[in-house]
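In the design runs reported in the main text, the only information available to the sequence generator was the tokenized backbone. The following block is the verbatim input for one such run; it is reproduced so that readers can re-run the procedure and compare outputs position by position.
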């Protein structure tokens, strides 16, 4: 099958556009002292609330991260600076990564136990249809990791749940794939809070290259005969 029939260049460009918009907002905050001061004031107010209600704040952050792994319109980029400012990079990474694992597990469970009608209400039916012909319970583990790296986080969980891919292998693949994105998100949040352009640029570029590179590598892999994909 030709690569163009399994790929979706529009998806790659949309991801680049989103990264570009985030970068633009970061640049504005970095080079505008007023914008950065306003950001720090907002983070300080949010931190005060978190200090007064630490358990509730941590649970809300965890649930927000989980929702970002299940719903296309929720992004943890919105709370990364708050997590870093409030708890520091290590705890911020732990909250993000744990939340993404929780959200992935929930999307898997929805796909497996509630089925396609519910999944289509939560994820793009067009993306589901595009990739479902390649997803089976016998997919090689490495391809599942690549699948997680390349696509929006809400898609793989639903599809792998629908085909009943082994849950333990799914969760391990998800954890491995989300770790570099979690590190990048925390470093970007740190760079934004501390106005460290030397940190923002290389980390942002590396995250973009990983995302787009994984996307194109996935579609090159999907272009080979199906028997090779299933047998690894």
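Verbatim output:
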């Amino acid at each position: 099958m030709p690569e163009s029939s399994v790929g979706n260049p529009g998806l790659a460009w949309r991801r680049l556009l989103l990264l570009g918009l985030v970068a633009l907002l970061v640049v504005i905050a970095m080079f505008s002292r007023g914008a950065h001061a306003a950001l720090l004031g907002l983070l300080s107010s949010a931190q005060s609330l978190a200090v007064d209600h630490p358990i509730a704040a941590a649970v809300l952050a965890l649930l927000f991260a989980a929702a970002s792994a299940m719903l296309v319109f929720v992004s943890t980029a919105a709370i990364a600076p708050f997590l870093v400012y409030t708890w520091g990079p290590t705890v911020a990474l732990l909250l993000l990564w744990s939340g993404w694992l929780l959200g992935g597990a929930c999307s898997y469970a929805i796909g497996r136990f509630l089925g396609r009608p519910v999944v289509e209400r939560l994820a793009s039916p067009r993306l589901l249809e595009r990739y479902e012909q390649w997803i089976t319970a016998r997919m090689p583990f490495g391809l599942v990791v690549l699948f997680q790296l390349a696509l929006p986080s809400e898609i793989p969980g639903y599809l792998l749940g629908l085909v009943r891919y082994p849950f333990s292998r799914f969760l391990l693949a998800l954890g491995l794939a989300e770790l570099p994105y979690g590190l990048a998100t925390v470093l970007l949040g740190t760079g934004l809070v501390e106005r460290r352009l030397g940190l923002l640029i290389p980390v942002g570029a590396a995250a973009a290259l990983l995302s787009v590179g994984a996307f194109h590598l996935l579609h090159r892999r999907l272009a080979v005969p199906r028997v090779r994909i299933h047998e690894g």
